[in-house]
């Protein structure tokens, strides 16, 4: 009789305990992502009824520890269904996250452009912006930049600062309409 299980290459012992724990934690994280979705988006994901019911139950709980315990139970219910039941939901969440990441990056680029316009290198940044968008109202943009600098230096509400961002956002939207690819 062989007591050393590792020497038996014919027997499949399944995933290790470490792998089982990783899988359980991944499902728990996925359950948490589902909990954070608004109900309108959650309804479109086509989840099993019992999972949807447990998500609703978990949302009603406000106490921290009780909510954590209920979230763990939700993950347990989700493990009963297997991966195929949640493939569409995972794909939708992945696409949503990628789109959010792209929108955030675009917003950061606009903010960086606005900062360049307001800093000492504003003339070169303004020249680049005008070269990219020849239809932009140069006089209005220069006026907004002067107002924003005055607001910043005078500790006033950032009205022109916001207007510059909105103008840059509109220009970026025009670019995306002109070049859909």
Q: Unreliable segments (pLDDT under 50, ≥5 consecutive)?
A: none
Order of helices and strands: HHHHHHHH
* Number of helical stretches of at least 4 residues: 8
CATH third-tier fold name of the largest domain: Diphtheria Toxin Repressor, domain 2
Could you state the CATH homologous superfamily of the largest domain? PSPTO4464-like domains
What is the 3D form?
Answer: elongated
Query: How many domains would you count in the coordinates?
Result: 2
In the CATH hierarchy, what is the architecture of the largest domain at level 2?
Answer: Orthogonal Bundle
Folded structure, characterized:
This protein has 181 residues and is mostly helical. The chain contains eight helices and no strands. It has helices at residues 17-36, 39-43, 49-60, 64-81, 87-118, 122-132, 138-154, 159-178. The longest helix has 32 residues, at 87-118.
Name some characteristics of this structure.
Diphtheria Toxin Repressor, domain 2; single chain; mainly alpha; 75% helix; 181 residues; 2 domains; 8 helices
């Amino acid at each position: 009789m062989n007591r050393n299980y590792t020497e038996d290459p014919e027997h499949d012992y399944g995933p290790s305990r470490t792998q089982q724990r990783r899988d359980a934690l991944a499902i728990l994280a996925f359950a948490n992502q589902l909990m954070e979705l608004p109900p309108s988006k959650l309804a479109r994901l086509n989840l099993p009824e019992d999972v949807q019911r447990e998500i609703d139950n978990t949302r009603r709980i406000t106490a921290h520890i009780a909510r954590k315990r209920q979230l763990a139970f939700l993950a347990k219910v989700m493990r009963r269904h297997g991966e195929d039941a949640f493939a569409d939901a995972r794909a939708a969440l992945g696409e949503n996250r990628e789109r959010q990441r792209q929108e955030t990056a675009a917003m950061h680029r606009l903010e960086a452009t606005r900062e360049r316009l307001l800093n000492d290198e504003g003339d070169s940044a303004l020249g680049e912006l005008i070269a990219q968008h020849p239809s932009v109202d140069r006089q209005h943009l220069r006026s907004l930049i002067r107002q924003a600098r005055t607001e910043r230096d005078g500790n006033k509400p950032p009205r022109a600062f916001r207007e510059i961002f909105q103008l840059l956002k509109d220009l970026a939207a025009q670019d995306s309409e002109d070049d859909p690819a």
